Amino acid sequence: MKQVFISLLMMMGTIHLHAQDPQFWIFLCFGQSNMAGSAPIEAQDSIVSERFLSLATTDGGDGRVMGTWRKAIPPLCRADARLSPADYFGRTLLEMVPEDVRIGIVSVAVEGCPITFFDKDRNDTLIAKEERDWMNSILDKYGRDPYERLVSMAKIAAKDGVIKGILLHQGETDAYNDDWGKTVRKIYRDLQQELQFDSTAVPLLVGEVVREEYGGICAHANPTINDIAKHYPNTYVVSSEGCLPGDDHLHFSSEGYRRLGRNYALRYLEVTKP
After folding, report:
1. DSSP string spanning the chain?
2. What angle do the packed helices 146-157 and 178-195 form, to 10 degrees?
3. Residue 188 reports pLDDT greater than 70
């Protein structure tokens, strides 16, 4: 009888340890290089609230362990990434939500990838054909299946909190026709089915690339990106107005990423009114 009682206590303890906290808001972030981040991390970026966490989606030389929470000190995506919009998305939210809310980021991004690398029904064949060494090095970190890594890490995160939104920044490679939007929507539906969240309560936020007025070399992707919200429910475009680029005019500058992250957060608050 004593042993049964001890076992019950242990079970109760385990349940408590893994109970979902409704005030722990989880956001899934995916895309290519501008979601991974491509600008220097500066001193101000390392000042992070204890309420802002990131789930490591890879192991890393900075001590991160895949599948475990860490304070959201950049880089969030991988140890070899840089400052990203997710950094200031989380920080901005924390300034505007109740003090008992925590923010958790789950980020998987592959520099230079097409959107189809996140399509679970096509990516295996496409990734197998990839010949660029630098791209294969990144894919290897995600077990050569970035979609599966995003899902598996999201399931771990959802044991502790509640999925509240999905952030996408991708399009420089291939957001130039209707197929891109259709694939984005399919990926969202696949995530919804596998993670069992309420699609009416979890918006998809899609960010613009560097704008034409700032010399963005992929600015011609923005019309396709903006078009997606016209066709799919609970899908919203995040403006990159005011988000200045780096020297390559493909990626954002550090301040550009900070502004873009704020734009994501303000758009999220606008459409959800939490």
Report:
1. -HHHHHHHHHHHHHHHHT---TTEEEEEEEESHHHH--B---GGGG---TTEEEE-SS--TTS--TT-EEE-PSP-S-TT--B-HHHHHHHHHHHHS-TT-EEEEEEEE-TT--GGGG-TTTHHHHHHT---HHHHHHHHHTTT-HHHHHHHHHHHHTTTSEEEEEEEE--TTT-SSHHHHHHHHHHHHHHHHHHT--TTTS-EEEE--S-GGGT-TTGGGHHHHHHGGGTSTTEEEE--TT--B-TTSSSBPHHHHHHHHHHHHHHHHHHH--
2. 40
3. yes
* Pairwise CA distance, residues 67 & 189, whole Å: 23
| Predicted confidence (pLDDT) at residue 12 exceeds the cutoff of 50 | no
What are the catalytic residues? 33, 248, 251
What integer pLDDT is reported at residue 1 of this predicted model? 43
202: closest CA among 170, 225, 235? 235
Over residues 117-165, the pLDDT tens digits come to: 999 999 999 999 999 999 999 999 999 999 999 999 999 999 999 999 9
22 preceded by cis ω (within 30°)?
Answer: no
